[in-house]
Structure to design on (444 residues):
């Protein structure tokens, strides 16, 4: 195998390398997706650019109005972050059941997003926080809404000379926030369905605002504004949850069409929605 | 055939080494085939079974999913580094006493996961233990003996230490 390993000293060196060799380069951070593709032979690349040591890409911090999560922040760091407990608990929750301890210790949020798997668990929480993804390169940076990062399954909007450097979230201290998923088993499961939600209620228990995103069962992540609008301004009851879940399933089918798996997914999506929001009742 | 190599310098089980490795190989390959330490196993090769678990800077990781070159400047511990002077580590004794070893293929990985977990958790309950070893598959025991061993280890302060 004729592959070179490249470890840049800083971000500027990484940008310069990509400007020159971007077409022949695959970026590696935690490696938990790249190594699987390398082993299977699916990935054949001239250069592996290791960005896992770049300090500029690490860490979670508040910057003015924004919550910034560095691209090579690991899922373990996300799970243990007190800032996220306060300002983005759904993102933190998505790290809880993410793969296994060994994988969470190295896998990065940037890799999870850049891989553009429809099943990426960090994506629905990033969607409800109206995240902008920072794409950077030698020529400068641009900020792309999270929903536009994947142009299709495993296809990323990123140019060959760019790196995802950070995620800019709107910090929210919501009354209720959650992430839920269904996989074939409990641990190390690839999500079949996933969803993230944030809800605020007024003193009468009426939903004053809601943000909701569906993951895994559509080719790219989707904020479900129709469901948000339906729920907002209403008092949460069990009946309302079932109606909201039904609407959600209908909206999902509008995107995916009636595929064979719909016999399972239609009730499952509704059920997961009801289960997730039941604590609000 | 042109095979690209990369020089890495790292600490393995307390010993500093510098070596040239092919740039595409996994950390597991470096440990087994270049360092000759055969305790870490390859089960699935794609990060699902945990038989290859090692500790890198005190954290449990799957060595099959780590590029060998990424070991550079890291502090690595494998199962060979757990016991001292030909005596078993107290955690290994607990595994034996509680019948947590049958075919033994998963054992090195489980010990690495458990050892890393106990360093960070003072008083975990059974559910937390189960979660900590969720990335390690065992097809023999049904896990109960393993979890019991870890619970026994919690009662014994000496199980936490060691290099």
């Amino acid at each position: 195998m004729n592959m070179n390993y490249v470890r840049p000293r800083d971000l500027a060196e990484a940008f310069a390398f990509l400007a020159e060799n971007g077409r022949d380069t695959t970026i590696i951070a935690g490696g938990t997706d790249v190594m699987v593709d390398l082993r299977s032979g699916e990935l054949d690349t001239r250069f592996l650019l290791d960005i896992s040591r770049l300090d500029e890409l690490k860490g979670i911090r508040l910057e003015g109005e924004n919550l910034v999560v560095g691209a090579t922040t690991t899922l373990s760091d996300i799970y243990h972050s007190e800032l996220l407990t306060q300002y983005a608990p759904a993102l933190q929750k998505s790290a809880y059941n993410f793969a296994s301890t060994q994988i969470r210790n190295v896998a990065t949020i940037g890799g999870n997003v850049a891989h553009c798997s429809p099943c990426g668990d960090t994506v629905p929480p990033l969607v409800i926080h109206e995240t902008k993804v920072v794409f950077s390169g030698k020529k400068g940076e641009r900020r792309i809404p999270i929903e536009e990062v994947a142009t299709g399954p495993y296809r990323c909007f990123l140019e060959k000379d760019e790196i995802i450097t950070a995620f800019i979230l709107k910090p929210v201290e919501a009354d209720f926030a959650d992430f839920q998923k269904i996989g074939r088993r409990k641990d190390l499961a690839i999500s079949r369905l996933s969803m993230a939600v944030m809800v605020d209620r007024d003193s009468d228990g009426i939903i004053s605002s809601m943000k909701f995103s569906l993951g895994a069962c559509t080719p790219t992540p989707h904020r479900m504004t129709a469901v948000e609008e339906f729920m907002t301004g209403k008092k949460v009851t069990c009946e309302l949850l079932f109606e909201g879940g039904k609407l959600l399933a209908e909206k999902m089918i509008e995107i995916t069409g009636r595929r064979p798996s719909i016999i399972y997914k239609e009730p499952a999506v509704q059920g997961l929605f009801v289960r997730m929001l039941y604590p609000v009742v | 055939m042109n095979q690209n190599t990369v020089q890495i310098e790292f600490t393995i089980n307390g010993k500093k080494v510098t070596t040239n490795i092919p740039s595409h190989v996994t950390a597991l390959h470096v440990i087994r085939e270049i360092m000759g330490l055969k305790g870490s196993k390859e089960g699935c090769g794609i990060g699902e079974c945990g038989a290859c678990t090692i500790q890198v800077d005190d954290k449990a990781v799957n060595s099959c999913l780590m590029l060998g070159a990424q070991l550079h400047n890291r502090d690595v511990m494998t199962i060979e580094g757990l016991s001292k002077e030909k005596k078993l580590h107290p955690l290994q004794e607990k595994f034996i006493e509680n019948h947590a070893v049958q075919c033994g293929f998963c054992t090195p990985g489980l010990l690495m996961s458990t050892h890393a977990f106990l360093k960070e958790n003072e008083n975990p309950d059974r559910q937390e233990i189960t979660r900590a070893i969720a990335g390690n598959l065992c097809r023999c025991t049904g896990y109960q003996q393993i979890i019991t061993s870890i619970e026994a280890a919690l009662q014994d302060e000496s199980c936490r230490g060691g290099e």
Observations:
- Chain B touches chain A through 34 residues (CB under 8 Å).
- Chain B has a mean pLDDT of 94.
